[in-house]
């Protein structure tokens, strides 16, 4: 099963209680997205994703509490610690015209404010609540970029281009002139 029709919507943190409920760090723009879903897929490193039907969604302190069919004990929930929570894109509400899924940013050309090309956006993901882009420069160097709104002045979805304005010294850390 390829990830192309899926979106990583969060990560399993730890069990909550004794009956299989677990905490999820949500990457969704709205915590209510999970309430519109009937199923998720849990993807562990090196394994195929497993489909689970959602039984309940509760909102905890900064995290979601999920209960799914097939995970009925604390021990079973522990087996999925750190698993990625995937959803099928077609199960999500439609995007607005100016919205894009993070996974769909891969392949965008990345430019600096002077319009010199830095490289290609290889991967976009949420890490510890922060959107991070992995940019592969023309020289083959990998740059991790915190994609905050103020640091991405332009994002052209049609042209598949992004202009970034990195903080002073960030590119130098990666040995890239900017």
Tell me what the structure shows.
This protein has 178 residues and is mainly beta. It has two domains: 6-91, Elongation Factor Tu (Ef-tu), domain 3, CATH 2.40.30.60; 102-173, PRC-barrel domain (SH3 type barrels, Roll). 5% of the residues lie in helices and 41% in strands. It contains two helices and twelve strands, in the order E-E-E-E-E-H-E-E-E-E-E-E-E-H. The chain has helices at residues 74-78, 170-173, and strands at 6-15, 22-26, 39-43, 50-59, 64-68, 84-88, 109-111, 117-127, 130-137, 142-146, 154-156, 161-163. The longest helix has 5 residues, at 74-78. The radius of gyration is 18 Å and the shape is elongated. The N and C termini lie far apart (39 Å). The relative contact order is 0.15. The model has no long low-confidence stretch (mean pLDDT 90).
The H-level CATH homologous superfamily of the largest domain, spelled out, is: RimM
What structural class do the secondary elements suggest? mainly beta
Outline type: elongated
User: How many domains?
Assistant: 2
What is the string of helix and strand elements?
A: EEEEEHEEEEEEEH
Helix content: under 10%
CATH class of the largest domain: Mainly Beta
Within the CATH hierarchy, at the fold level, what is the topology of the largest domain? Elongation Factor Tu (Ef-tu), domain 3
The biggest beta sheet reads: 6 strands, antiparallel, barrel
- What CATH architecture of the largest domain would you give? Beta Barrel
Please report the distance between the alpha carbons of the first and last residues: 39 Å
Strand tally: 12
* Share in β-strands: 35-45%
**Tally of DSSP helical segments:** 2
Strand order of the largest sheet: 1-2-5-4-3-6
Low-confidence stretches: none
| CA-atom Rg in angstroms | 18 Å
Mean pLDDT: 90
